Amino acid sequence: MELPGQDRIARQRRVGMALLVMVGAILILTLLWPWRRQDASLQSGITDGPEIALDPAQASRFVRLSIDCVGRPFPNKPGLILDGADTLRLPQDLTPAFYGCFDWHSAVHGHWAMVRVLSRLPGLPEDQAMRAKLDAHLTADNLRRELAYLQAERNKTFERPYGWGWLLRLSAELHGWNDPDARRWETAVRPVAELISAQTIDYLPRLSAPIRAGTHDNTAFAMVHMLDYARALGDTRLEETVVSRARELYGKDQDCPVAYEPSGEDFISPCLVEADLMRRVLDQASFRTWLSSFLPPVGSTKFAPLLSPVEVRDRQDPRIGHLIGLGLQRAWSLRGIAASLPPNDPRVDLYRKLARLHAHGAMQQMFDSGYGGEHWLASFAIYLTTGVGIGP
User: Could you tell me the CA-to-CA distances from 318 to 35, 102, 169, 290 in Å, in that order?
Assistant: First the structure.
């Protein structure tokens, strides 16, 4: 039984707690209201467009670029190391599956692009041409020679990590496609994928810090492909390696310098690709917390470079033209980040709108880039428009 004085004290405590809750709610609303108004203002100032998806006409246009380049040996930029006169040979002799498209990695993702389109949009006029190219290139003999080339000591770092990631992406795409031809092609590619998986398991623990470049050396970009492959194939050792290394290399990152992006020849956003990786590694709640510390607030000047498409002053220059691909990569990363946040997160709508903005900007420029851009931009466009890493 409470005494009168105790009853009065209890009532006072309840009133005090209610007042504290009310004051806290007012403070939160006071803090959020300007941010939400600022977010609404930002969104109203961004030119929006429809979501870009791959329709048959677009798909035909993209895959014709891949069909044209996978068997085109010149021009070519080989990434080989010469340790004797006998190692100076034509690319189609050294790597008979992946010798076209200007360089090895572009040839690999040119094949991936055809597989992706064949499995997602069957019945295109280019179907038979794509199957003929894949049949000619992804043979057991060709891939045995690719394997021997990669196993040579002088080629230990060949295409590491960018080409490694794309080869694993190709293998995962073949694995997920229920098609008799795909089974044969996957069987041919598998030994190379298994070698790269083993090399990755050896390499990542020896990497003391990630490579944060906006070009081929970027560690996070390759790890995205590697992780998706590991999960698709059930490669648990590779998955465990990539996940643990991602946590160690990126888990404590804060205040990514978005204001420094892009460098003049980037086709990868170092900040957004890291977030694209970490959304695959962390659960939703942990990712949301990590992202809030990692990317600057959308209304800040530090975030401003992501609010508009990057200027490309010379589309025909094969390195300056990288910036066209940056727009595509920004778009798919922003879309994936938005899909990994809770639906009620205030950043979701803005990120999706920005993804459409960057996608439209890049799409309008990619067919004016000459062979220096077209040999690889089709793959990036297909990656974006088929929603890789988002849903099935």
Answer: 41, 11, 24, 35
Task: State the residue range of the domain holding 77.
Answer: 49-81+89-385
The values of phi and psi at residue 372, to 5°, are: -60, -25
Which one, of 171, 213, 173, 204, lies nearest residue 189 by Cα?
171
Task: Give the global pTM.
Answer: 0.89
Q: What is the pLDDT of residues 141-173, one digit of tens each?
A: 999 999 999 999 999 999 999 999 999 999 999
Buried b (16+ CB within 10 A) or exposed e, 17-44: eeeeeeeeeeeeeeeeeeeeeebeebee
For residue range 240-265, what is the model confidence (pLDDT) as tens digits? 999 999 999 999 999 999 999 999 99
- Number of structural domains (the chain) is 1
Query: CATH number for the domain including 174?
Result: 1.50.10
- Residue 20 placed within a domain: no
Does residue 31 lie within any of the structural domains?
A: no
CA separation for the pair 113, 386 (Å, rounded): 10
CA distance 171 to 225: 10
340 found inside a domain: yes
| Predicted local distance difference test score (pLDDT) of residue 8 | 63
* Phi, psi for residue 289 in degrees, rounded to 5: -65, -45
The pair of three-digit structure tokens given for residue 98, joined into one six-digit string: 């992946």
Query: Which stretches of the chain are assigned E, i.e. beta strand?
Result: none
